[in-house]
Amino acid sequence: MKEVLIIILAYLIGSIPTSVWVSRYFFEVDIRDYGSGNAGATNTFRVLGKRWGTFVMLCDMLKGLLAVKLAWMLPFYVDHDFARTTLQIGLGLSAVVGHIFPIWADFRGGKGVATLFGLVLGISPWSALGCIGVFLLVLYVTRFVSLSSILASAAFPIFILVIFNVDNEAYRVFAVAVALLVILTHQKNIGRLIRGSESKVPILKYRDRRKERRMAEKD
Does 211 score more than 60 pLDDT? Predict the structure, then answer.
């Protein structure tokens, strides 16, 4: 019974629609009426800029992290690693479902990638940091948040299965499932990337301007 209650609590935490509240309170608009129509960090970067995009991304990651930490509220799971990790995966996924279908925002949310990162950060910090490193590197090079998310998620099972060789079978299956889930939920983005119509986030513009100046100088 206690497990059910904290899983519901994890869902409610995940349901906090950060981007929707930010867009309504500070800009008097609904982020879901613009850009891709998603209530996630990627669309916030695209529509509201890097400052608010970063804020929303961190808040969405925090939702997954907090949901995972709810497992420590139940004494039984403190000393049982396998059971605790399994419960933490359930709690984190509940938060992700809340992010995708938020009860506080008419069940219209985002894709849950940032919340997934928060989940991983709470269970396997080094793997999460590795994924974040991949994400930031790809974002720096391409400025595509969608591509950064896809490649970071694809790197996750590599960290779990190969680099750190985690022996928890539930977590190993979860790592592979996360990579597949992110790829499946980004089919439209993948199509736009192939067609060259995917939007870039408004960061590192100074780098682009510097390249343009150098090209102009060469001409």
Answer: no
Q: Which helix (H) or strand (E) holds 175?
A: helix 169-185
What confidence tier does 46 reach under pLDDT thresholds 50, 70, 90? Answer: confident
Task: Tell me which DSSP letter residue 202 carries.
Answer: S
Give the list of residues 6+ apart from residue 3 with CB closer than 8 angstroms, or none. 74, 87
Q: How many CB atoms lie within 10 A of CB 90?
A: 19
Model confidence, pTM: 0.82
Give dist(CA 95, CA 116) in Å, integer: 9
Domain range for 190 is 2-218
Tens digit of each residue's pLDDT (9 = 90 or more) over 138-193: 988 898 888 998 999 999 999 999 999 888 888 899 999 989 988 988 888 899 99
CA–CA separation, 135 vs 149, rounded Å?
A: 6
| Separation of first and last alpha carbons in the chain | 71
Domain count, the chain: 1
Reported as type and span, the H/E element at residue 62 is helix 50-69
Say how many C-beta atoms besides its own lie within 10 A of residue 24's C-beta: 14
